[in-house]
Amino acid sequence: MLQKSQEFNKNRFLITERNKHTKTIKKEKEKFRTFVINRYIEYVKNYTRVLETRFPSAMKMYRVFSIGIKDFLRDLKTYITLRIKIARDQGFSNMSRQDIELYEKMPTDMWRIAPVLILSAIPFGNYIIFPLAFLKPRKLLCSHFWSIQQRVEFSMQDLTERLRYNRAVFRALQERLDTIPESSIKEKWERIIALLGSGVHPTANDIIECKELFSKEPYNMKNLTYAHMGSLLRMHGLKKSIFRRKKLKYRAFLLLQMDKAIIREGGVEMLGSESLRNACQIRGLNGSHLSNQNMKDWLQQWLQVSQNVDSMAHVGSKKPIDKDKLASWHVECELGIITDSDCPIDGGWSSWSSWSECQGACDKTGHRKRTRECVNPPPSKDGLPCSGSDQELETCYLNNCNVEDFRKIVKGDPARIAGLNQLEAVPAVADRCLQMECPFEAIEAGLTNENTWQLSAEELWNALQCVKRNLGCPVAGQWSIWDSWSNCGARCGKGLRWRQRKCDAPPPSDARLMCSGAPLQYEECEGDQCAIDDPKLEYSPTGAWSPWGQWTDCSEHCGIGIRHRKRQCVEKHTSHSLFAWRTNCRGQHDQLEVCSSKNCNLDGGWSGWGPWGACSKTCGAGKRSRSRSCTRPIPFGEGANCFGPRTEIGTCHRKPCDVYSNTVALFNGDSVLEYNFTKRHSTFFHFYIRFMPLSPTGTLVRRDKLTYPFIQLLLHKWHLCLDVSGSSKCVLPRICSPNVLAPAVWQSALVTFTNNAAILRINDAQIPLKCSVACEPQLTNDFVAIHVGERFHGAVQEIILNFIPLSMFIEKERQVRTTNLFPAFASNIIYDKANLEEAFITLENYYYLRLPCFYKGEESWQIKLTVKPKTDNGLILFIYDDSSNWILMSLQNMRLKLKLKLGEHKSEVISSSEYQPDHWLDLTLSRKKSANILEATINNGEHLHLDLTDKIMKTGNQMFKRQNYIVQNTTEVLDDICDSSEEKYENVLYKQKRFSFIHCDEEFFVGFIPFYLKKNISEEAIPFSGTIASIHLNGALFNLQDCSMERNIEDTIQLSSRTASISGSYQETVWGKSKKINLTCFYSKTQSLFKNKSYWLFLDTGIRGIFKNTNVTWHDNGRILRLALPENKELRGFYSCRSFYNKRTRNLITYGVIGKVENKFSGPDLTTAAAVFTTLSLVIFTLGWLIIEGINDLREGHGFFRDINLTPEKEAEAVCNYIDKNIHLLGSKSAAKLAKARARRKARQLASRASFAAQEPEGLLQIDNNTEDQAQAIEEETPKEPLPALPASQCFVTEPFHQVFRCEPSYVSSPRHGSNITSPETKLTSSSSLDTSPRNLCSRLLLNRFKYSSKESLRSKLLPRSKRERHSNATQLLTIKSSTLVNLSPAQRILQKFHELRPDDT
What we know:
The chain contains 34 helices and 50 strands. Strands 12, 14, 20, 21, 22, 24, 25 and 27 form an eight-stranded antiparallel β-sheet that branches.
């Protein structure tokens, strides 16, 4: 038993060790495999780098031709597209300057590169023609294959050649000078000719004044001489031809269209440096040594002339005369449907200039401005002028002014000069407080150290406000204008009337500055209400005056005032007649006199608040202050001082500080991005772009398809337009925005094209622009290729194609590791950080943001928002949880309101300060676990608090009374609840504290709330309208452009364009035989409790609000969302599944429902047809050539397939001819004669052998042996002389391409081919060889030879005879083997025979 146990343990040990060994071997193999794979991957990555290091010239040539061919093919496709547009009568009006320049240049480039491309198509022809073309690039290649240096050099050469003909043109103009009939124009033209002759450029206005000379004789195109037109053609870089006048007209037409395109695209100011040089080069100016401004000035003068001279256009105006048709013609011109030279051109604003310097007084709010001009383009041909203001003003603040600056400011103002003198009496206060803000306490502190003149702090404060802000300066009182005259003071008899004035225009700021003079003025008058008949009596018996009353107090406490007193007429008998208004007292009943107060006591009064000072921060929430002084009036005597603060501190916010800044692509008109996704095919088209336009024209995106479908989104006169066509018979009308786009403002556009409609949605509009498809567009599942930014001036922030964001950077090394799609080509793109406004997002029309919550376990959190509200009310922030608890932050009458709901308890707090609309606010909402307080902060100033302790206790009390707690540890909880002690009750509430307080449930909302949450909230919610600059969650900054943005439309949801354009994946599907599609979306691994958060979208809107009365059904089981679509053409389009996944709500998958598949053959496009035609032509040409060569080979016995065969006699004649031509190699004529005899003798022997061998093959060996013996005997008898070597050649030496040794004999009986009879030692060889041809027969005759050097001859003399003989035999043997065992050509055999003859003669 023990032995078995030991064996078992031993076996187990062995198995364990074997397993370990096996694992070790596997690991080593895996390491080796990984090492090999990594090295291979590294080798592949560095392959191009290694080739460039080892073969720099070859790689340079490869790059030149590979990049050049790509550029050429791209421009060729664009050229073909332009030709198609022109053939459709779209003209040049919709073409850009760059397209017209390409259209003008491509024919010349095509003719230049055509021979190289045709010859390179021949098999192996590219190995010859490309190096030759690389050596002569200017003659054999076009500009696509030139380097930058070559382009500059060749353009200079072309321009130099063109300028040679300027003199001829100038002489032709001079010759026709005498034929000008009108003297006035002739004098002007003579002056221009004189200026040109002296090398001075005439002005554009001088040329325009003489434009009539070119519309008639002598310089009209019809009147030019043949030589003059030829010189003009050469001056423009064109070749002379028979149809010179036609070529000149076409050249002038293209130049005019280029000029119009420059004007359409914003003028010369919108051209970059390269575009300026190219434009000047085309027009004959060398701009390589000119600055951009000089080129712009010259080109501007050219455009001025071009707009005023005869255009000689090919197409006339289509402007109708009928008024009814004229209105529709204007509309078509506005939309760009027709291209007419007479279409009105509306004015467009240029971009804003930079802000000017701040204008204003020191330490005072000033202003700065920026301007723009209506020149982009200028209005013409009854076009509308620009709408809006041409300038903008912005407040600014001038600070850091010193004493000298204020001395200049107060000059001429005595009050402020006196105040400045007071401040200078205390230099410490003056130097500091004039340059920065000083509170009243700082002045008091300054006077404690220095106060020679015993000034009070109040006086210095008033002087400071007077000097710095012109606030509260001493004002001397001035009289107001006189009031109107009063009624007569006597109702009967003579009296006085008066008028008064007050010292309040302006009122004095000090009792010592009262007005001087009388405030009262008298004038005699007479009353006419007398009841006394006798004019001498003062009063009648029926009436008497009462005593005078007391004087009233003086109207002014300080200074001169007025007081008055009265008396009454006592009537003894009152009459009740009509004349009861008469009086029985004669004289004055009212008296006024001037008075003044002896004890002048004046209470102080505050002046108005001064303007707000500068903000303490240039960005973000800061502080600012404003001041006032107790100078209206100044307290005097025992008057009371002013009550209240002298300085008020307020919050300010100039602009946001911390925003999420994206990198954008800047386009300058010559820029373009190209995307080619050959592995991504799609039938529908879905495209989103966010951009900022700076010019009124330009193409934002164009689907790269030469034929159909064609999709183009472009700017036309600041309108955003969409051109779509499905097939040649299905072209949709142009869709354009009804309103113009604001320049230099960020815009967004969503473009979709399906079988049903083309849709353009601009800036998240609720109702997009839609054009239904009335015909069958015949969309095909083609690869996706687009061009972005052609002729566009502005910036692009994001591009999304078919629900996948595209990268605007070319990053080849990252393509494998990332999912973004990269451009295949980028030209003249500048990448830079976007401006501040790019990060902003505008919420209006019920839009709101969804953002992911903080972790549920976090009990301390902070949310910070920077907003600028447009209205007084609106919901800003909403946080909720699954227990119906929520936090709401909103604006109510521009006061911040914070409200909390926990269970059944609600509490709220509102700010005391009222804020202004259209001002930035920094809002912070936070909760700290330690303090157990919910806190809101406004601009880092006012704080709002909600104490959560009381709320939790009350909520816990209510929940304790109304609910049964269900927790894991049930026994412990029940014991605690049943215990009536206070301590136990508090313990229970503490344990339930976490359940009572709100925890963010997955997402929170900014701006508004979804409809399904709004139903559960009794509070009235008003959507926020304004701008969101930034949102921070626990210090992390959100990219607002990446946030989900949506809004409520009744009981459904509509997404923003950007949110609807992002999806996890995109698939296209069709209806099958069941005539029904089931779309499936798997959104959760476990059973979800929130089914209302998962729904289907049709493009950007929930299907609940769209397909109410259709047979569309959907089902949600908590994990999978299904959608069933019956076969209906109206249901074709994009369907997205939207659900909460991975901490946020997103689009999981999007389906493109194409409809029913209809297999229709569509003909090939132009490019495919051209490629097939070229390939077939080359194949037919090659086959025809091979057939012809085969016929010649069969007919003549030689040709392309085989060489001519020589008989022994012909070989002998060839050797003899060679000897005759090279007698000097043998030394004498006798030696040559003997060599020729030997050759002929051997030829006869070989011929007889061939004839004999045909009859008796068995006697071959004997004859062969006899022949060898005879030859050896002849060689012994013949004296041997050294054979001189053939002259050396620098050409290559052809060697046998293989070594074949065969032991069996080979017999050929036909003497027709000149066959040689050989023995087993000497193989029979044919004169035809695989490595020879007629083209190299003569070359090999001279090249294949034996070379003997002087060293070998010397070595043969020094060696002993025996060794020499062995060496000679070995050499001979080797020579025989190399000559007989390898198939030799006739030329090689002739040389061999010549060398065999030489030893016989020695």
